[in-house]
Amino acid sequence: MSIQDVAPSSIGPIDVEQAEAALVERYPRLVRIAYLVLPPALGRNRRVLTAHALVQRALPRRRVPGAAVPGPRRPEDAVDPGYAYVRGEVLRQALVAGLPLRRRALPRRAQFPPLLPQVWGLRLFPRVGGADELALDQLLSALSGPGRAAYVLRGLERQGDAEVLRVLAAAGVTDPAAALAEADGVDAAVAGEAEATGAGDRAGGAALLESPEFDPCSLQARPTDLMRRRQHGRAALVAAAALVVCGTLLGLPGDGWGRNGAAAPSYARNPAAEAALDPGQVKRVPAALWEGSTRRDFSVWPARGALAGDRALLRRALAVWARPSGTVRSAATPGTPVGPPMGPPQLLFAGVLDGVRVVLFHDGLRVVRYAEPVEGTAGAALDFARTDAADAVGAAALVVSRAADDVRYLTAPWVRETAVRDLLMPAQEPWPLARDASGVTEPMPSPARARGCVRWNTLQVGDGSGRRLLTDLGEVAPARLLWGPPAAPVDATGAEARREWARTACALAAVRGHGVRSVQAWRFARQPLPEGTGRASWVCTRVETWRGTGSRVLAQFAPPLPAGTKPSGAPAVTVARSDGSPACGVRDPRVLAGVLWRAPSGAWHVLAAGTEDVASLDLSGGVRGHAEGHLLAVPAARGSRAEVTGTLRDGTRVTALR
C-alpha cells in the first residue's frame, strides 16, 4: 500500500451553529457511520440506539478554534469543515464504545448504554438485507474498531488512503496504517467473492454499505421478551413488598418482639462466637504432649507448619470457615456438619504446599482443611471431614495437599516410618516415602481421581506397634484397610491379605467420597469349581463410615488365576451389594452369595457359598437345587436367575445378598 504525499492546509474556527447544521443535514449518514463502526457484539437494538446517541452528543459546547491539518491531494477528499468535525467526534466516540471495560481504567461515557434515546417495550433494528449484506457484516465483525472505521471512510465516504489515515489519527487511533491494512483484507475478500460471482470489485462492497441492512434510521420494531417482562414485573412487586415489610420490622422498638424474638444480636457479637474467630484463641498443643498422654488421637497433635504463627492467614481461614462466600469451593463427607466452629478450634498445620497456603483445624468432631492460592485471591476451598472417636490408627495421617494426581499426607507425631505400597502388586516391596520436619510426606500418586484401575497406591505407616495401610478415597481422612473375619481383623499388610486385596482393590472406587473410615475384606469361603478347574475364593468386603450409618457390603467372586496371570489382571467380580446391612460385620458375621459362572467348556453353573455356620443351601426360581453344607454348584442355562437361601445349624433361614 502506498501513501500519497499531502500538503498542510488550515481549517478555520467552527461555530456550534455550523456543526449543528452539518449534523442535521447529514444526520442519516452520520448515524450509519456510527452503526457500522460500533462492535456487532452489542446487538442490533443497542447498536441502533447507541449510534443515534453518539451522533446527538457530537455537537461542540463552544466555538472550536481552527487547526493546521494536512490538506487532501484529491478534490473528492475535501469535506465541509462542520461535517468533518462532527464526523470525527462520532468516529472517536464509536471507537471508545467498542473498548472493553477494565478495572484499572477510568470508564468512558460511550462505553455505557445510552441514557437517550430510550425505547421501552420494543426492539428496533434495521431491515434485513440479502446474502451479500450478511457476508459483509460477518467480515466487518471480524475487524477491530479502527479497521471498521477505515473501511467505512474509504467505502462509504469515498476518502483516499491519505485522508483515511489523517481522520483515524485525529480520532485517536494509535496505528492507522494497521487499521487500513485490515480494511484491505475486507476489500480482498469482497473482490474474491465478486470475481467468483462475476460482480464488481471494491465498489461493490462500498455499494453494500449504502443498503438498508446498515441504515439505523429506517427501522423495524418488534416486542421484547413478553414472558420475561412479566416475570420482571412480578419480581419488582415482590421486592417492593419485601422492602415495606423489612422497613416495618426495622421500625419496631428495641425491646419489642422482632424477627428473632428474645434472641441476642447476630452471633458476631456473641463472646463465644468472637472467640472462635479470633486467631489468638486458637488452641496449640505442645510438641511433646503426645508422648505422655494416655490417648493418641487428633487432640494431641501439635501445631506444625511454617505459617503456624501467621495470624492474618488464620484469621482468613476462620472467617471463611464461619462465613464462606459463593466463590468458595466447599466439600464435606456425608453426615458432616459444615457450620462454623463451636469454639476456638485446635490448629494442626499451617504452611505452603504446592503453591497453596493450607490450614488444618480440628474441633473434636471434624477436621477442616482451608486452602488458598499463594498468588491471587480467587480459588479458596474448604473441606470438612468427620473424625470423631478416632484412635491412634484413625489419627495416623490426614490428606494435607492435592496437586493433579498426587497427594501429600500430614502424619501423626508417633508415626516413625512411611512408605508407598501398590495393592495391585502384592509381591512388590513398598518404597520409602520421605517426610519433612513437619511430618508432611513427599507427593505420591493417588487413586482418588484415577479413571482406570492400573495401580492402587496406599500409604503404609509404622508406629512401633505395627504397620498399617491407609488409602486415599478423595477425602481429608484416609481409610484404613483391614483383612480377616469381623471379630478379629488385622491390618492388610500380610502376604495372604495382599494377595486377596490385589484382586478386590478396584472395588474401592465405588466408595470414593463416602465418608469411609475403614474397609475390611474377608475370604469367607473357598469352593472347588466344576470340571476340576480349581478353587475359587468368595470374599466379603465391608465398608464402615465415620458417621456409623451408611455402611456397605460387597460380595465378590474370584475364580482361580490362569497360569502366568498377575492378581491385578483378573480382578474379583462383585456379585452382590447391600447398603446398611449388618452382614459380614460384628453384629452379623454371616454372609451368603451366589453367581452364574461359565466353565471353560462353555457350560453354565449356579454357584453359591456361605459362611461355615450355613448347614444347607437351596435354589429356587429359574434354577432349583439343594446341597448340604455351605457350598453349592448346580448346572444351569445361560441367563438363568435363581434365589439362594440357606439354613443355619440352629434352623434359622438366611437370604443371599443381592
Polypeptide structure, described:
The protein has 658 residues and is α+β, with helices and mostly antiparallel strands. Helices cover 25% and strands 26% of the residues. The protein contains 13 helices and 29 strands. The strands form seven sheets. Strands 12, 13, 15, 16, 17, 18, 19, 20, 21 and 22 form a ten-stranded mixed sheet that branches. Strand 12 and strand 13 form a beta hairpin. The radius of gyration is 39 Å and the shape is elongated. The chain starts with 6 loop residues before the first strand and ends with a strand.
Specify Rg, calculated over alpha carbons: 39 Å
Rough shape?
A: elongated
Indicate the low-confidence ranges by residue numbers.
Answer: 1-10, 67-73, 252-268
Report the total helices. 13
